[in-house]
């Protein structure tokens, strides 16, 4: 069906920069960032899995967030690195649709998991007596399954709608991966339905989790302020500080990429913002959680000590 709808077999990806020389000079930097991202997030998953003290809802969702960050970066950066190294800046039509699907799925999962972690902190701080019931293993598994189902439905909807379009000329995608908007600009079909679904579904999966996060912290902050002892308030808020840092970085770059006014928007700014939330943010997450969280520090130290004992 896809082959009949489109007369092109591949697209050209411009890359992170319009200059091939600049892309070559940035190759080493992005390769290092990619490897650090994979290593850091993998360590977070291993540390949480090996430490029984971290088998809690908060760290359950953090481990899933780390897995999703690895997927988000791999779905975009790996192809870009291959193109720069081989100097062959093309992606097949089917490969473009697959990349779009995984990028949308992992990107939406990032947003949903951040909302789930905010809700977990709200229950832990504002409803501590009900925490074990509200955030039971069964509830956490249900939330996880719901996140995966919803994001897959959204990603599949966008991908199937894109597959129905015709692309009459092999064009250049003004991006370093197959994002929806740059690909839609190359279509010679009517894209009104696609644009409407981007607005409806894209706005929903972006705004609804963000509202959940804001609402959770509207309740969390006063609850912290009501704690009379300074030590108690500091300990309560310290569990949220790492999460808040990631939320600010993720949504700050995401909003700048997709909610920027047309008067100041440009392809260069869109690429820069996309690079921040698909490349830089997943790399920063392990550092933020390991450096600002004492439990994670202990778990990582224990993990490295176990590896040293095993190797000796």
Automatic annotation (TrEMBL):
Gene Ontology cellular component terms for the protein in this record: plasma membrane
Domain (G-protein coupled receptors family 1 profile) ranges: 40-289
Main location: membrane
Record flagged with keyword Cell membrane: yes
Subcellular location: Cell membrane; Membrane
Name of the protein this chain belongs to: Olfactory receptor
Entries under CDD domains matching the protein: 7tmA_OR1_7-like
A Pfam family per the record: 7tm_4
Assigned keywords, A-Z: Cell membrane, G-protein coupled receptor, Membrane, Olfaction, Receptor, Sensory transduction, Transducer, Transmembrane, Transmembrane helix
Family of this protein: Belongs to the G-protein coupled receptor 1 family.
TM region positions: 26-47, 59-78, 98-119, 139-161, 196-220, 241-259, 271-291
